[in-house]
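Need tokens for this chain, all 120 residues.
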Amino acid sequence: MEILANVLVALVAALHVYILVMEMFLWQKKPGMSFHGFDAETARRTAPLAANQGLYNGFLAAGLVWGLIAADPTGFRAQVFFLSCVIVAGVYGGLTANRRILLAQALPGAVALAAVLAAR
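Here are the structure tokens for all 120 residues:
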């Protein structure tokens, strides 16, 4: 179960690295604009906000990686904390921005958190 939990945490971390890249570097390029359905002007105007969001997603990813490499109990605690942050951010984003964030961010975080807690 521990291996499964670690794989799920790594996948959530990778998801947040992907989000970082989309929001910080590809927001005004074709992949970013088509992903969000924005035209060039909307992407240009919202780019600073997106970059800020991307940075926060990078911090979530970094915390999850720290949780994977740190010895317990620190590693376990970091995983629980940062997965909880992922879930809260996903629920908030799903309620305020786009419902698909619930499935794309909160659900993977919740599944990974359940696996981390079950592996304990």
